[in-house]
């Protein structure tokens, strides 16, 4: 939906649910990422925090760049590392926002979609031009 919004295309109700067609790779990316972050947190807190922030764009890279789960995780880490402190502040801000939304109970119905949209906007900003589609020949 956010991609259509950016391209000034008409948005239909079904566009809000298009992400569910990627559920298996998304679950795989999320699960492997969380396992690696957990191992990093158990061994030493700093590697876990680094990976948590580094994998921030992994799911979006899979959806929009078509990378497999491991390449998505690695490319996300490499892209985020270039501006790690900015992404760290963004991730912390989103965590605080969602915790506040959870305290209001129904607030998470606003804060979680907002967090996903903010992540999409950050993704678009960071990868602008890098993931441009190849022109199709007619």
Mean pLDDT: 81
Low-confidence stretches: 134-138
Number of helices: 7
| Structural domain count | 1
Strand percentage, roughly? Answer: under 5%
- What share of the residues lie within helices? over 70%
List the helices and strands and how they pair.
Layout: H1 2-6, H2 23-43, H3 45-54, H4 58-65, H5 69-82, H6 84-103, H7 108-126
Helix pairs in contact: 2-3, 2-5, 4-5, 6-7
Description of the structure:
The chain is mainly α and 138 residues long. The protein has one domain. It is built from seven helices and no strands. It has helices at 2-6, 23-43, 45-54, 58-65, 69-82, 84-103, 108-126. Helix 2 crosses helix 5 (69-82) and helix 4 crosses helix 5. It is globular. The model is unreliable at 134-138 (pLDDT under 50).
Compact summary:
70% of the residues lie in helices and 0% in strands. The protein is built from 7 helices and no strands.
Name a few traits of the molecule.
about 140 residues, mainly alpha
């Amino acid at each position: 939906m956010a991609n259509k919004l950016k391209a000034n295309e008409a948005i239909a109700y079904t566009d809000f649910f298009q992400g569910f067609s990627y559920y298996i790779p998304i679950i795989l990316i999320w699960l492997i990422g969380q396992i690696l972050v957990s191992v990093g947190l158990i061994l030493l807190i700093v590697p876990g925090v680094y990976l948590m922030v580094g994998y921030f764009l992994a799911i979006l890279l899979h959806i929009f760049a078509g990378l497999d789960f491991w390449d998505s995780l690695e490319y996300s880490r490499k892209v985020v590392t270039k501006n790690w402190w900015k992404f760290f502040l963004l991730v912390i801000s989103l965590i605080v926002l969602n915790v506040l939304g959870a305290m209001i109970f129904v607030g998470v119905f606003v804060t979680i979609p907002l967090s996903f949209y903010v992540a999409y906007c950050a993704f678009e900003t960071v990868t602008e031009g890098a993931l441009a589609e190849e022109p199709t020949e007619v």
